[in-house]
Amino acid sequence: MPMSTETSLAQIGVVGLAVMGSNLARNFARNGNTVAVYNRSTDKTDKLISDYATDGNFIPSKTIEDFVASLEKPRRAIIMVQAGHATDAVINQLAEVMEEGDIIIDGGNALYTDTVRREREIAARGLHFVGAGISGGEEGALNGPSIMPGGPKESWDALGPLLESIAAVVDGTPCVTHIGPDGAGHFVKMVHNGIEYADMQVIGEAYQLLRFGADMSPAEIADVFAEWNKGDLDSYLIEITAEVLRQVDAETGKPLVDVILDAAGQKGTGRWTVKEALDLGVPTTAIGEAVFARALSSSLGQRAAAQGNLPTGSLKTFGELGLDKAEFIEDVRRALYASKLVAYSQGFDEIKAGSDEHQWDVDPRDLATIWRGGCIIRAKFLNRIVEAYDNNAELPSLLLDPYFKGELEGLIDPWRKVVIYATQLGLPAPVFTSSLSYYDSLRAERLPAAIIQGQRDFFGAHTYQRIDKEGTFHTLWSGDRSEIES
Ligand code: ATR
Question: Which residues of the sequence carry a binding annotation for substrate (predicted)?
Answer without folding.
Answer: 109, 135-137, 192-193, 197, 267, 294, 456, 462
